[in-house]
Structures are given as structure tokens and as C-alpha cells.
What does this fold into?
Amino acid sequence: MSDSPFGRLITAMITPMRADLDLDLDRMGDFADRLIRGGNDSLLVCGTTGESPTVFYPQKIEVVKAVVSATAGRVPVIANVGDNCTVDTVDFAREVEKLGVDGLMCVVPYYNKPPQEGLYRHFRTIAESVDLPVILYNIPGRCVTNMTAQTTLRLAHDVDNIVAIKEASGDMAQVEAICADAPSGFWVYSGDDSATYDIMRRGGYGVISTIGNIAPDRMSRIVGLCAAGEWERAKEENDALLPLMEGLFETTNPILVKEALKLSGYPVGGVRLPLVDATPEQSQRLAHLMREVGVL
It folds into this structure.
């Protein structure tokens, strides 16, 4: 397998907010630096963990600019530009492409429930409108529609700059099918931290991570051991961190990720409605998990 230009650990960054829930761009840049020093190979901005549904296009531009400036070329920056309207996504992708990012991510269109042929044409249209590499994002739990292995593989084989997929379907048979027939230069990333070990055992390349916001060094070690084929050690490391991987999703992401950062002494503000901040009970359980796995 050839090496991905984005590495094995890509963290989907939170978006820091001020007390009034306006963007905290200074904190954004500082946090990007913190994640790089923690061992991330690439950074993803404006994903679900970055509250993409409530950070609208003009603010996404500001977030991208802040992270590109802060990283200063030290690691690749990927911007999520996906929407459920193909024309809007193309326009936004072209705008973001000018900002110095190294790749784009596009999620399966949500709410309008396109058929597989619609998915194929949607992603192909977007990818062919830009020069940057494009990562697909399949997460039926949020988008309702599952992009099948057949559709993913059509795109991987037909469109040169579609280079990877973030697979969060939870269907390991689907993951295996993609890994088995993907062309050279197409990489499968786990879309769930807790599935990373299992997906890499099936031929996956790495993870687009949530817990990387909190424990990038630990997650980097897990994917590194998997890549080296040291499966027993990788499982030990994975099992040790697994309670927190799962615990962060007790409620909707990124509520508990932001709470975990606050608990660790690095506050990044609250979440925008319709999400709400962690309850005292959730915070207490989270702190217990963080102590249990050794990150607090």
C-alpha cells in the first residue's frame, strides 16, 4: 500500500467559541498548534466535531484561514466542504481551494436521501470541479443514506482526485469490500475511533479521529502499532483507551469533547444551539472516564 499524503491520524478539530459563542480564532490557531505537537499527521476543519451545521459558510472561511495560518505548512489541512446541494458544494469547494488547504472532505448528502446514482454524480461533479484531493465521508447514522461499497469503488476507480473515504457505516463487510477492491492511491479511514483497530485489521489506513482532540499521542500510538502489524500491542493500547472513545459519544458530538478539553484545563467554549453544553452529571461521568484511562 502506498502512503497517504495525509498520514494515519487526522483529527477532526473542534471549533473554539468565545463566551458569546462567536468564533475564537486566536484559540483556533493555538489549538491547531497543540494538536500538531500532540502527534497529528493532518488536521480536518469544519467537520461534524467542528460544528459544521452551525458554523455557516462565511465563518467556515475564517476558520480555514486561521488553521492554515497556524499550521504554516507543518501538516496538511483538510477542509470539510460537503453539503446536501451539489451546486452549493461546488461553489464553496472552489472558494476554499483558494485558501491554501491541502484537501477537501465531502459528506454524503443528508436529508434529501439521494439514490446511489445520485451519490455517484454528486461526488464526481464536486471532485471534477477542483484540483485538490477529495475525501468521501460516509456516515449513515447522521445522513440516513448509506453509500454502498459499489458506489465508493466506482468513484475511487473513475475519479483520479477522489483519494480516500472516511467510513463510519459500522458495516465491516462493507469496509472489507472497499479495502479489497480499492485502487492504489485510495485509502480507507475509520470514521469512528472505536472502530479503528478493527478497520485497520481489515486493510484500513488510519482514522479521522474525535479523541485526537484530547489524546492525540495515545491515538497516534494505536494507529502506528496497527500499521506496523503489532496487533497484540495495538489491541492493548486500544482497549485501554476504548472506554473514553465510547464515552465521548454518550451524548451528541462534540458536546463531551469540548467538556473534556475544559476538564483537562484547556477550555474551548461551549456549543451552539441546538446542541447544549454537558450536564453536571455528564461532566462527572466524563471526568471519571478520563481518570480511568489516564488522560486526566
Remarks:
- The longest strand covers residues 162-167.
- The mean pLDDT is 97.
- Residues 57 and 67 are 15 Å apart (CA to CA).
